[in-house]
Amino acid sequence: MFFADGGLVPTERFIATRVEAELAFVMSKRLAGPDCTMFDVLNATDFVVPALEILDTRIERVDPHTKATRKIYDTIADNAANAGIVLGGRPIRPLDADLRWIGALCFKNGQLEETGLAAGVLNHPATAVAWLANKIAPLGLALEPGQVVLAGSFIRPIETRKGDTIQADYGAYGSVSCYFA
């Protein structure tokens, strides 16, 4: 699922790709709920890094025969459309920046498509990671050291096709990009 920063994403592996800008948390300690807070997340995180999430569907968004569009339960059954991750930019220690104010300018083929701030994810991206740790706790699961956790997108998905280049500029925190080949 990991693609190199600036690397090629093979379009033949996918049906209908889209891209979102996110922050990825790389865990240094085990993080388990219940009652996990954003402060627990910050303490258990080695670093945060700019990321692009590549979305795809395992089924067409519009059924070619019935013309019916996908429903939310289709997305859930489809593992919320996650298909790949591109990590890039500058790793950030979680307390070295106010993560809410990290933003991205997202370009498609050199044209600005979307902008956003990480505060768009539950007011703080670490809150989303805490939510996840709490959600999986009843199943006896936890976030483990070394795992990469995407906090959630703070832009609308950008549609991509073969030949498109996507670049997200995170300002002082660097950039991350990929090319759909």
Give a topology summary:
Blueprint: E1 2-3, E2 7-9, E3 18-27, H1 38-44, E4 45-55, H2 72-77, E5 82-87, E6 103-108, E7 111-117, H3 125-136, E8 148-150, E9 158-159, E10 165-169, E11 175-180
Parallel strand pairs: 1-5, 2-11
Antiparallel strand pairs: 3-4, 3-8, 3-9, 4-5, 6-7, 6-10, 10-11
Average of per-residue pLDDT values? 92
End-to-end CA span: 16 Å
Structural class label: alpha+beta
C-alpha-based Rg, rounded: 17 Å
Fraction of residues in H or I helices: 10-25%
Shape: globular
Q: Report the top-level CATH class.
A: Alpha Beta
CATH architecture: Alpha-Beta Complex
Quote the beta fraction: 25-35%
- The residue ranges in which pLDDT falls below 50 over 5 or more consecutive positions are none
Helix and strand succession?
EEEHEHEEEHEEEE
Query: Largest sheet at a glance?
Result: 6 strands, mixed
Q: How many independent structural domains?
A: 1
CATH topology: Fumarylacetoacetate hydrolase, domain 2
Number of helices: 3
Number of strands: 11
What name goes with the CATH superfamily? Fumarylacetoacetase-like, C-terminal domain
